[in-house]
Each structure stands twice: as structure tokens, then as C-alpha cells.
Amino acid sequence: MTGVLVVDDDQHLLKALRITLQAHGYAVETAADGEAALIAASRNPPGLVVLDLGLPDMDGAAVLRELRRWSSAPVLVLSARHGSSDKVDALDAGADDYITKPFGLEELLARLRALLRRAPETAEPSTVDTAEFSVDLGRRMVTRNGEPVRLTPTEWSILELLVRNPGKLITQQQILATVWGPAYEKEANYLRVYMAQLRRKLEADTGNPRHLLTEAGIGYRFRP
Amino acid sequence: MTGVLVVDDDQHLLKALRITLQAHGYAVETAADGEAALIAASRNPPGLVVLDLGLPDMDGAAVLRELRRWSSAPVLVLSARHGSSDKVDALDAGADDYITKPFGLEELLARLRALLRRAPETAEPSTVDTAEFSVDLGRRMVTRNGEPVRLTPTEWSILELLVRNPGKLITQQQILATVWGPAYEKEANYLRVYMAQLRRKLEADTGNPRHLLTEAGIGYRFRP
DNA sequence: GACCGGCGTTAAGGATCCGTCAAGATTCCG
DNA sequence: CGGAATCTTGACGGATCCTTAACGCCGGTC
């Protein structure tokens, strides 16, 4: 069940939103001012925030910025102000959507659904394992059968790019641009040399690689 | 540079948006109706779509649903209709934001920034499945009965174009122009060779294809 | 029933791309 | 300054891919 934090100083609106949201299956928490909102958010990190800009104690934009320092939850801003600059400021401060009062509850719910549809963020793993070797992205270390493997900086850059996108085909241009810079996109020769090097260090059978695969004419692919 | 596809039947608005967006560093492509929009999107997948709901040839919501079958790019809907149900329908059909005409360009740009912030060059994890094989557009990978299928670059280009327009008839000229370039629109022979190749790799019974269908005299069609 | 255009299939040739090796150039570090 | 590690460059055989041509099949037409 998704947790929603509603921040507004209008007690009536707060109550109405709580009831409506709970009826639609959200776990609702409320706050009436900016300070309470930040405390509530840190105590019980919400999956989504509905934030009124007109708060008694502090600017709504300030709440937004504080929140954005550690939370990446989607924020939908409510406001009575129709001005274009208000909207631009709020959106650029980190808000994900902005609707003006008065608004329809149906529209609010639809916008919440749209925001939550984008929400499920994947925390990337710090290590990637295969049957034969293991790559620790945080420590910048590779082990094979428990033994550490020495990689040169260039070798590591290529391997990291491939391993961070498991199963995805990475074009030669992407690798060359990432590792050597955009000016080297034609030097496909480098890649051949370094892929051979990587396979010699990581693959059991260099002739039949099982994890560092070639896609002729396009690029390479890492298969976990 | 992020690619934005703008779909609207109002030539004036189209031109104004193109100029404004280009001035802000986006690569802009435009389409005046739903069909052109879907072709343009599959030919050059955009990072973001601005879609007018009032199109001459098909319902804007239908365009949205077709696009959502393979693309996860954020979609901002433009509309002249203020009704709550219109907004709810569009948002639930897969749109990420909805603004009504007339709108301020500054607000539009701010909303685009907010959307792109959420989907930073999203590696489209979109896949299209059939009963026998599955096409992972983001990873550029095809699996059949769980086993990966090796496709050459040309084979992939053709399959990608067809799969990104499920159920839609693609003419031979469109395929040839997209894969080999506009100068090869007469080389229908290439297509026969490669369609046979694709069917041999993907279809159970190449004589009776179930997903890669021929439309004699016109072109080909992908049926999910 | 013969002709004909469009399609599917196959295979061979040539062009392109890849893996490999090794030697020279460069950078790094004591 | 000198040695070691790393990077660059070029060349070669082999693998992969694209092109091209030929042939059989099917459906429509006269």
C-alpha cells in the first residue's frame, strides 16, 4: 500500500483528501505546516507527497527543496495561484506536477496514478555476479573463482559500462564515446583489442565467450 | 540531446513549438496526424512526446494506447477540453501530464523539464511478446522459448519497425526506406530474403507464419 | 490451361567485421 | 632517470553478414 503525505493548512480540505485517498487504497498521513511535513516525511518516508504552496510557517518551495535533499518521491503541488511563474518555479524546484485550486478530485486521483506509475525506482545492485566471475561496482574490483583479477583503467571502464546494463546491447559508438570520448567513435580497433583482453582475463573459453558477447556490426553485450 | 515528438494538426502551433523547443536544446520532430506520429515514433524513438488529443485521423487516446504498447517515453497531452473526465481518461490511458489550451510556453517547458527529470534517458525496458517469441526493444534482444535468438543488424531493423507498429500494415517502401535508405525503395528483393530469414528464426512453421504476415502487393504486418 | 507477376527459398560470392598477436609509443611511478 | 605497466597501431586469417541470382510455388488473368 502506497503512503501519501498530504500537506495543507486548510483543515477541511485535509480531511476531505484523507477520506478520499483512503477510500482509494492509499495510506494517508497529513501535516498542516512545513515543519510538520518535513518531520512526518523523515519519520515515515512517503511514496508520494501532495503539497500546498500556501503554508503558514514557511514557503512551500522551501519545503520542496528541503524534501528534495534526501527524498526522490514524486511531489504534486496544490496552489491557489494561477500565475505562470508560480508554476515554473515550483516545477523547477523539484515538483512533478502542479494543479490549481479549485480542482476536481477525479483529476487529482488520475494525476496521482500517473505519478505513481513512474515511481517504482530500482535500487541498483552494487555487485553483479555470473557463474564464473563477480564484479563489485562500488569497490571497483573483479574476482574470478575467488581470486582478484587485475584490470587496467580502460578495461574497467568498458566492463563497468557493460555490466551496468545487463543484457542490453551497447553499441561500439557508445563504448568508445564513454571510455575514450566522443572524438574516438571511429576507432573500433581499440575495442577489439580490449575485448580480447577482457575475455582472456574473465572468460574460461576465449573462443566461446559466455558472458561478453559480440553482436557483429553493432556492439557488445553482457549476459549475467 | 533529447528528442521530442510534437503531434498536432495546427500548423501554426506546430511551427511555434518547433522553434521554441529547438531554441531550448531539444531535437524536435513533428507529425500532423496520428498515423504519421506512430511511424515517426517508431523510426526515431523520442525521449518525450507532446500529443494533441484533437487529431483529424484518429482519436488522440488511440494514438496514446498504440504508442504505449512499446514505448515508455513520457507523454504530455495538449487539449482544448477542460472537462475532468477528459483529463482522467488521458492520464489513465498512459499520459504523464495534461494541460489545456491556451497554455503558456513557459509552463509547458517547465512541465517538460519535470517529466524528463523523472525519465532521464530511460532505457526503454519495453518488450513486445507473442505466443512464441519475445522482442525486448530496450535491450535489442529477441528470445524464443526462453532461448536468445541471434539477429543480424538488418534483420533487427526490419523486425523493430514491424514490432513497433503492432497490427499495422507497413509498406515495402516504408521498410526499405527505413532500413536501407530512401534510395533503395525499389529493391523489393532484399525484403523477400530477409523476411524469409526472420521467419526461419522466429516462426514455428515458416510456410504458415503466425506473426510475420505478408500482404501481397503491399507490404508486411506484425501480429502479436 | 498457359501465361505472368509477386513471393518464398536457397546458396554462392564478395565485402565487411572481428579476434588475435606483437611491436612500438606513451605514461606512470619509484 | 629507468623500468614497468599501459596504451596505441598495424597486419593477418577467419568468421559473419550483405548482396545477387536463380528456381519453384502460388494465385490471378486471359
Write the layout of secondary structure elements.
Two copies of one chain form a homodimer.
Chain A lengths: L2 E5 L3 H13 L3 E5 L2 H10 L4 E5 L7 H9 L6 E5 L4 H9 L4 E4 L4 H14 L8 E3 L3 E4 L4 E4 L2 E3 L3 H11 L5 E3 H8 L8 H15 L9 E4 L3 E4 L2
Parallel strand pairs in A: 1-2, 1-3, 3-4, 4-5
Antiparallel strand pairs in A: 6-7, 7-8, 8-9, 10-12, 11-12
Helix pairs in contact in A: 2-3, 6-8
The structure holds a DNA duplex (30 and 30 nucleotides).
Give the CA-based shape of chain A: elongated
What is the averaged pLDDT score of chain A? Answer: 91
Which sheet architecture does the biggest sheet of chain A show? Answer: 5 strands, parallel
Poorly predicted parts of chain A: none
| Number of DSSP strand runs of chain A | 12
Oligomer: homodimer
* Termini separation of chain A: 32 Å
- Written as H for each helix and E for each strand, in order along the chain, the element string of chain A is EHEHEHEHEHEEEEHEHHEE
Q: What's the number of helices of chain A?
A: 8
Radius of gyration of chain A, in Å, reads 25 Å
| Helical residue percent band of chain A | 25-40%
Strand content of chain A: 15-25%
The two chains with the largest interface, and their residue counts, are: A-B, 31 and 30 residues
Q: Strands across the major sheet of chain A, in which order?
A: 2-1-3-4-5
